[in-house]
Amino acid sequence: MSLYAIGDLHLHFQSELKARNQLYDRVWKKHEIRFKRNCEKLIRSEDTLVLVGDHSWGRDLDECGKDLLYISDLPGRKILIRGNHDMFWDVKKTVALNEQFRPALTFLQDSFESYRDYAIVGTKGFTFEGPFYLDHFGRIVGWDEAKESHAKKLVEREAVRLKKSFDSAIEAGYKKFIMFLHYPPTNILEEKSVFTDIAEEYGAKAVVYAHCHGESRFHDSIEGERNGIEYHLVSGDYLNWKPLKIMD
Ligand SMILES: [Fe+2]
Ligand SMILES: [Fe+2]
Fold it and tell me: How many angstroms does the Cα of residue 102 sit away from the middle of ligand 1?
């Protein structure tokens, strides 16, 4: 039994493709075929695959039907975390979403799922992504302060949701955690954040995140070990569509 993760499938079987580079960039071209093949090679029915957000370009459930069916047909148990592009997923309607897609898919929000003696916890997260203003040397010398103060509110809301997820697991008796976020836990200005603080406070073994696309963004946040926690970036294009094994 193994736990795998990957994010940012950005499927568009039925919807308008909003990132045209998916048609011709080497890593993105027909990625859904390569990803499916990799999953079938790697993942067995007893394994768990956590999909870390940005599942579909669809604007609502009607436009996501085929994308969610594609995910349902992948091997193993599938747990989904919400991404910033997942317009089909209204947090307040997560219960209905789970009812509709059970047992094929589990939409994780304000709750937890078990994996061996670990609790899988998580939320979308958020981080301030600029715009940043650079000098001639490419150093950050300023940023959009209005956007930053708006981001702070979203970060606070997501921190509350993340704690709810941890607390639901604690209430059920879990003491070990794997934490998932769609957004990176820190932005390029930060060494730590409310999300890294929560991960440390609750004693998460690992923090798994996605959202960062392209070589210039892959190293925006923490990777590897920090304060006893393993940080993994699992954007699909970063992993070249091969799910990352988080643990056995
Ligand atoms: Fe994405
Ligand atoms: Fe994203």
Answer: 25
